[in-house]
Model the fold of this input.
Amino acid sequence: MSYTSFDFPHTHFYDSDLRELLGMCKTLMDDYDKLVADLNSLNEWRVKHEGEYAELLVKLSEVEQELSDFEVKLNKEFADLDAALQAKFNDLVNNVNAELEAALKTFTELYNTLRTQIESEFATIKVEISRAIVQLQNLISANNEYVFEEVTRRLEEFIQNLPDYENLIVYNPVRGSQTNVQTAILDLYDEFRIYGLTAAQYDSLQLTASHYDSLNLTALEYDRMGYKLLDYPDPTYSMRDPFDGQFVKCQVVIYKLAELHRDCLTAAEYDALELTAYEYDALELTAYLYDWYGIVLFGDALTATEYDALELTASEYDAKRLDAYQYDVYGKLLLAA
Done:
């Protein structure tokens, strides 16, 4: 071993190292002797108690046998108890069934008895009612004239006691005051005749008798709905026609004004184009475009002279972003506008 390096940090010499090592060996021997002593003590304890362990196993075996015997006995007692309960239950069921059958028999007999009695009493009552009806019919026949005269007399007396309707005063909701009932009814009827015509309004329609008869109007329909049924111009939806000054419906004026802005083709003008159905479909026109711009769309194509007269530069034409189809179909509309 080198004298310059040490395996034990607490020593600086070789002899000291040996003493340290011997001390550690002695400590190890002491620990070993103690372990052997503990093992010997444990072995002695095992030998001492080995007999007790065997005795304990015997006792456990006896306890297990007792538990097994108790289980067998308990199972037998439960089986006996179950059999006894089942027998008692069967007896109860049989007794209940017997009682129910007896009660049902008694009820059936009672029902039949009561039914026979009710049918007998009903037959008796039916005979008595029939007899009473015959007696009543005979009594009515014998006193029919008297009853009629009595009813007539009482009805006339009741009518005479009614108040005179012309003098019956009620609150008139139309006038806000009290009037007789006839006046109130007439006022209410007039309020519901919101579509009734005045004589002047009817004369303004200048209807002939044959025309009026052809309408097949009842008097009530004319009186309540004449305004609507005779097509009298409603002031709310009518106006003066700016073309002839007549008082007509707004719809008529709107149609006339719309005609001023429609460049539509007549049937003869469309026929003159001699378009096939395929050619027309290829144009992909909507009904609106055809109805309002037919003359423009189907007018003469833009000729080269007309195009030159526009004096469009290439950049101006490109700015229109027209394809060949749009130029060919809508050229005059899109470029000449």
Residues 163-192 form one domain. The longest strand covers residues 169-172. The mean pLDDT is 79.
